[in-house]
């Protein structure tokens, strides 16, 4: 005899709209995380590195400076994402709530990526996408900080601009485009 939960799980798996929604939300979550992870972790690694090389078409930091270890990595030695997010928080770029949400978002992403069987076969498994927009807003804060405080002060391309009137938000639109495009996909899911 099959119990009610097993039947509910099977029906959920066989329902095209339910399984499609779960898989699309999982894909969006993983993709958003990877975009944000790249900015959160790699921007700091490159900033504190003195040896960046192009290897097989990818930028690679070949060493970790003591400054990077002291300022970023030391906070959570075995968790570079969390250490990097913590650096942004302790430097007043993001708030404590932002830090907590970034860590939760990463943990939820890991659960989704490693629990695909639950996504497929557990009718109660759901991905809460209410935080996706908030996470992209945090990503935007970090991107804006980088262009205002680092790029515009060190990149010669900004030498002839007036930092007081320059539209930094417009300047980061191409960087935010992939994340915003993923958020746009949520409109189709919610309808």
Number of strands: 2
Task: List low-confidence stretches.
Answer: none
Mean pLDDT: 87
Please work out how many helical segments DSSP would assign.
9
- Neighbour order of strands in the largest sheet: 1-2
Q: From the alpha-carbon coordinates, what is the Rg to the nearest angstrom? A: 20 Å
Structural classification = mainly alpha
The major pleated sheet works out as:
2 strands, antiparallel
Return the string of H and E elements.
Answer: HHEEHHHHHHH
Q: Into which percent range does the helicity of residues fall?
A: 55-70%
The shape is elongated
* N/C terminus separation: 37 Å
Number of domains: 1
Strand content: under 5%
Q: Could you write a compact summary of the structure shown?
A:
With 191 residues, this protein is mainly α.
What does this structure look like?
Helix content is 68%, strand content 4%. The protein has 191 residues and is mainly alpha-helical. The protein has one domain. Strands 1-2 form a two-stranded antiparallel ribbon. A hairpin with a 2-residue loop joins strand 1 (52-55) and strand 2 (58-61). The longest helix is centred in the first third of the chain and has 32 residues, at 16-47. It is elongated and about 70 Å long. The two termini are 37 Å apart.
Keywords summarizing the entry:
4% strand; 191 residues; mainly alpha; two-stranded antiparallel ribbon; 9 helices
Topology:
Elements: H1 4-14, H2 16-47, E1 52-55, E2 58-61, H3 66-71, H4 80-90, H5 96-114, H6 116-121, H7 132-154, H8 168-171, H9 173-190
Antiparallel strand pairs: 1-2
């Amino acid at each position: 005899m099959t119990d009610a939960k097993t039947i509910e799980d099977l029906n959920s798996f066989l329902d095209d709209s339910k399984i499609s929604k779960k898989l699309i939300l999982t894909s969006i979550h993983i993709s958003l995380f990877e975009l944000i992870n790249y900015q959160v972790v790699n921007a700091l690694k490159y900033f504190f590195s003195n040896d960046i090389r192009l290897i097989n078409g990818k930028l690679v930091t070949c060493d970790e400076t003591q400054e990077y270890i002291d300022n970023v990595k030391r906070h959570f030695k075995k968790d570079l994402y969390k250490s990097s997010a913590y650096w942004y928080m302790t430097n007043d770029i993001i708030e404590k709530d932002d830090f907590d949400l970034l860590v939760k978002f990463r943990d939820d992403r890991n659960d989704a990526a490693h629990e695909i069987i639950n996504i497929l076969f557990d009718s109660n498994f759901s991905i809460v996408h209410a935080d996706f927009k908030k996470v992209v807003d945090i990503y935007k804060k970090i991107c804006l900080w980088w262009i205002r405080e680092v790029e515009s002060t060190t990149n010669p391309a900004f030498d002839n601009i007036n930092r007081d009137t320059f539209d930094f938000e417009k300047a980061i639109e191409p960087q935010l485009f992939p994340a915003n495009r993923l958020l746009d996909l949520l409109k189709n899911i919610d309808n």
